[in-house]
Amino acid sequence: MSGCFFSFQEPVMPSPLTQETVFGVADGATYSGMLCLDESGRLYFAQAQVDGHTIPLPDSQWATRDEAVRALADIASGASKPGA
After folding, report:
1. How do the pLDDT tens digits run along the chain, 84 residues long?
2. Cβ neighbours of 66 (radius 10 Å)
3. How far apart are CA 8 and CA 11, in angstroms?
4. How many Å from the N-terminal Cα to the C-terminal Cα in the chain?
5. Which DSSP category does 70 fall into?
6. DSSP 42-69
7. Longest CA span, the chain
8. Dihedral sign, CA of 32, 42, 38, 20?
9. Could you give the C-alpha distances from 22 to 9, 11, 40, 71, in angstroms and in order?
10. Phi-psi region of 33 (alpha: psi -120 to 50; beta: other; left: phi over 0)
């Protein structure tokens, strides 16, 4: 048998963003964190640092990226405390 056979496959689409490294400066303090998306669609920091020191955020979750980054910036600037 001769002939041409073509295989058509659905294009592989990348999965939605599930983690992102964020960083910035707030009131002279540097901060960074690994922002992750959980199964329910909430955002949390898998790890976070302010001026090179790891800060615990075990139960903190946010609905939007902006809320999460603002919370980390507020912690870095001293405007709020971790877990508050």
Report:
1. 455 454 455 554 445 668 999 999 999 999 999 999 998 999 999 999 999 999 999 889 999 999 999 999 999 999 998 876
2. 10
3. 9
4. 72
5. H
6. -EEEEEEEETTEE---TT--BSSHHHHH
7. 75
8. negative
9. 36, 30, 21, 12
10. beta
Nearest to 48 by CA among 30, 64, 62, 63: 30
- pTM exceeds 0.85 for this model: no
Which residue, chain included where needed, has tokens 């949390």? 44
User: 38: which 2 tokens?
Assistant: 């959980």
CB 75 within 8 A of CB 50: yes
Name the one residue in this structure whose structure tokens are 């960074």. Answer: 32
